[in-house]
User: Fold methylmalonyl-CoA epimerase from Sinorhizobium sojae CCBAU 05684.
Amino acid sequence: MLGRVNHVAIAVPDLEAAAASYRGTLGASVTEPQALPEHGVTVAFVTLPNTKVELLEPLGDASPIAAFLEKSPSGGMHHICYEVEDIVAARDRLLQAGARVLGDGNPKIGAHGKPVLFLHPKDFQGTLIELEEV
Amino acid sequence: MLGRVNHVAIAVPDLEAAAASYRGTLGASVTEPQALPEHGVTVAFVTLPNTKVELLEPLGDASPIAAFLEKSPSGGMHHICYEVEDIVAARDRLLQAGARVLGDGNPKIGAHGKPVLFLHPKDFQGTLIELEEV
Assistant:
């Protein structure tokens, strides 16, 4: 079921500083920051040969990463996103196996314009998993 | 400088249970567990089309992931490993930029038999970064 790792997301308190550190200190290519008010984040991507790292900064009052950064103010690895071919089939398989899908269980349109679901970290060794249909 | 994401490492309290969950619930291919006493971990890899996820269970009394699991008993994302072409050149560039390399600053032979270095999470938004020469 799991396909490629689409991205690894890192929550950061200061996107400009994080992008500068990946560009300058680590010598990576980083896209320009993009504000996504409907998702409560500003994002920039570290582009790597085989996948990407998504740097996420909270945007607005109800950012989904605000609680994470309250607990870890300097930031940290937030989730890992895997590609799946059919997100409804994936969801049904997960529910049948007893795994919990966050929210109302229906795929939403994610930050990349594709249908996504998030799985409960307690069912996967403390790791927040996003599935994205590609 | 940063090349491919070689792996994303997840610390888990029970490797057998974690492997079963990635195999069964998530439908991924997982290698057989391998004990690496000299590194204080038992590892299994979730093999994905573009990279891998390294599941790490503590082994022995002085495991480098013991403290992490004390803080997060159910597990969690532990580090991300990027490939570099020349680890000594990478190290020198990082030190010049003011970043901290863990340990004595010299590359060690890592769990995959290749020279590796770890960078201080405080210099990279709370993310523990491993560099591996390939």
